[in-house]
Amino acid sequence: MNRNRLALTLAVALAACAAPAFAQQDIDKVNGGIRAEAGQTYGDLETVNGGIDIGDGAVIEDASTVNGGIEGGDDVHARDLEAVNGGIRLGKRARVHGIETVNGGIYLDRGSQVVGNIENVNGGIGIVGTVVGGDIETVSGNITVGADSHVKGGIRVEKPNGMSFHWKKQRPPRIVIGPNAVVDGPLVFERDVVLYVHTRARIGRVSGATAKPYSTPTPPEE
Q: Which domain holds residue 93?
């Protein structure tokens, strides 16, 4: 009996050593894009010169790129997504903790959820049918809180810093709160903006701008 037990113990130990490791795969590049295959699980995805493409249903930790954008399909799950020179665009039902770009737009499709903030400096921000647990912040970008979206924090458009000395020559950012959209927190504007709020939307206190109501499917063209 003792020999049988020893043999069984050794067999289990050897099988455990031979079993494949299912650790999440990190991908780190300097030059070149990264592809996260649909339905697969990854660790951190990082590149300097290249974009990041995330397939439908892929699950990742963080994704970041310096020169390149991040494109995600439907049902993507991620923690933080960051880009410096490039936009971030996700499909339907994305689940993300936070999204940040410097020079690049951000777009999320219906059914998506962001736990924290959506932030950029230059580039439009657009969400539709999306829930944002934190704030939406920009300096020079347009913001569209599309139909049926819910921002549980607020909206802030910051004043450009001293290095952005050409900002006065630019058109003011266009902020649109669409039909059935809700912004729970304050809307704070530290620079001139054009603010359109649908008559079926609900927003918090506004400072630094005067809301222009509209009742058509889209706001007036300037």
A: 2-214
